[in-house]
Amino acid sequence: MQENYEHYISRNIKNLYRKRLIPPILYLIFSAVLFGILPVASVLFPAKLSNISDMETLHDEKNVFVSASLKDLKFTGYTRMRHSRTVGYYYYTDNPDKKECCMILLAPSTCEQGLPEIDQITIRGKILSGDAVYDTLLANLSKDLSWTQSGIRSKVSSYYLSEPDFRYGFGLFLFLLLAVSSGIAVISVFLSVLFIYRPYLSPPCQKLKHFGKPKELLSLAEEELATLPQLATEDMFITEHFFIETSKYGIAIVPIQEITWIYKHSTLHKLFWYHFSISYTLHITANKHVYIRCPKNTKSDIDGIIDYLSEANHNILVGFHEKNRQKVHGR
Question: 37, 39, 282, 319: least CB-packed within 10 angstroms?
Fold first, then answer.
């Protein structure tokens, strides 16, 4: 059955970029999920904690990074250690709305290594729910005050604000990473859609600008391929004036008269010690520094292409030799 080569190159370009649409779209979905799960934007744009009693509400709304102005802080006498280093000092302040105290963990530099009292301070911190370390702190405070554990828990909020846990640098890095990579993905989607609707603007066709107008040369190549290809393999074609490749590895179009050097390279495929196949790659060098690789072809297909091209253009150098390389590259 005669293969339909009508607009064959454009169809393959469109199919190629339809497939390339999938990875960036999936990444954008993944990135959106990360933005939803991780409080990335909250680190850069922390919520305003107007009232200390709002900590639980903001925590439930996933606004765990906040900016807060606090008054009348008193040092508890306890610090938080991490890797034998003091990373924070525990203070408490009254929450008159709920008639309880709230714990604030300040960085050493903020509280000057444990000032007894701080009248007013503005910090950026992370709202945390009580963990094992926090439970230990409350247990020690209950002993100091001769209270029961249930008694101190009724007077102290189960949420506390930690300044050392506000990691702005990491949040900024993560935000920039996601923003930049998402931007690249959006550009990739835009370009793929553009190349689907305007195949002549795609990179394979734009290489033709070295030899003329890409749109006109693509139209001529498609016309010649649709009329009668001189030689056709599974994914390589020769027309009157063009060599054409349309494989899953890429698409290439080059005028035969611009080709300067062709050769094949064999690759032995093996699994552990067992050699199970040999594939061949066709290498084409053309004027204006245009290079084309056509991988994973059979020896007979590539030999046929090389023979036909060398007959169509007697100036083509055939074979991988140092002498040919020096002629092409000039050194």
Answer: 37
